[in-house]
Amino acid sequence: MIHLSNEPMKLHTTFRVGGNADDLYLVENSKDIVRIIEMCEDTDTDYYIIGNGSNLLVSDDGFRGSIIEISKNMSRIDVMADGLYAEAGAFLSTIANAAKDNSMTGFEFASGIPGTLGGAVTMNAGAYGGEMKDVIEYVDVIDDRGREKRISGKDMDFSYRHSIVPEKNYIVTGAKLILSHGNKDAIENLMKELKTKRNEKQPVEFPSAGSTFKRPEGYFAGKLIMDAELKGYSIGGATVSEKHAGFIINSGDATAKDIYELILHVQDTVFEKFGVKLEPEVKMLGVFE
Q1: What is the rounded distance in angstroms from the CA atom of residue 169 to the CA atom of residue 176?
Q2: 53 burial class (0-12, 13-18, 19+ CB within 10 angstroms)?
Q3: Fewer Cβ close by (within 10 Å): the C or N end of the chain?
């Protein structure tokens, strides 16, 4: 386990913004996680779990407490006869490549999602017609009493951008993915095709947190924002992407306040024009008001 004090969160989020956290721990296993949580509870210290920081906006004031980062130091991938087991810190792209290298199909949809398995399971991440719920056999978690538990996929209450994890205060430590055997060349070609689509349609050349808003029922967030004539609209260094209006990007030296205020402006404008309330997919950490 690695401990970093007064650590800039802009180094740990894909928006590349955010002030300092009092403490940041790069954990290696479940015991590290439980130990830090117990320490925080004993000292009445706030804590927050992150992965790659790909769906997170940290305020410019940072976070007064401890960040527990489950990422590259907890990212083992084991090949099994009918799929893969991966620790929560494994990148989805790395898992997809491991599946491809072992001629396993079913995870291509996730190959371009810029996050870790833990976050993807927590929010039932999806793309190009696939979702995590389609491939999960079971999930290993730590519950709110520090106990390790294994939960079957059918008991995860998966739905659009939702799982049982937040409401139960679980911490995902790993998951078993059920995959099928396929043709390695076909798998690689599909991954390349999806990467090309993503690069053509999404502003991957700029820091962002992926899709900024959840899809409202009956609508598409990006189209609502585009129809509200907000493409290219900027506040400071934060901009509604010209390539895909569903993305707010760090187009220069954005601050977290710039991004937060742009999110609010987009929400207010879309609601005023169309009566639809956009809900951020991005999680906010710290003080913004």
Answers
A1: 20
A2: buried
A3: C
Q: What is the pLDDT of residues 148-170, one digit of tens each?
A: 999 999 999 999 889 999 999 99
> Whole-angstrom Cα distance, residue 47 to residue 232?
36
Distance CA 160, CA 138 (A): 18
Q: Is 169 exposed, middle or buried (0-12, 13-18, 19+ CB in 10 A)?
A: exposed
Return the SS3 of 207: coil
Query: What amino acid occupies position 89?
Result: G
What pLDDT score was predicted for residue 273? 97
pTM above 0.90, yes or no: yes
- The mean pLDDT of the chain is 96
Which residue intervals of the chain are DSSP H helices?
A: 30-42, 92-101, 117-122, 165-168, 184-201, 221-227, 256-274
Q: Of 85, 81, 79, 82, which is closest to residue 101 (Cα–Cα)?
A: 79
Catalytic residue list: 161, 211, 281
Tell me which residue of 269, 80, 256, 251 sits closest to 180, measured CA to CA.
80
178, β-bridge pairs:
83
Query: Any idea how long the chain is?
Result: 289
Residue 280 DSSP one-character state:
B
pLDDT tens-digit map of 48-91: 999 999 999 999 999 999 999 999 999 999 999 999 999 999 99
Contacts of 264 by beta carbon, 8 Å cutoff, 6+ apart: none
239 contacts 249 by C-beta, under 8 angstroms = yes
Placement of tokens 């993503």 in the chain:
198
Three-state DSSP at 25 gives strand
Q: Is 107 helix (H, G, I), strand (E, B) or coil?
A: coil
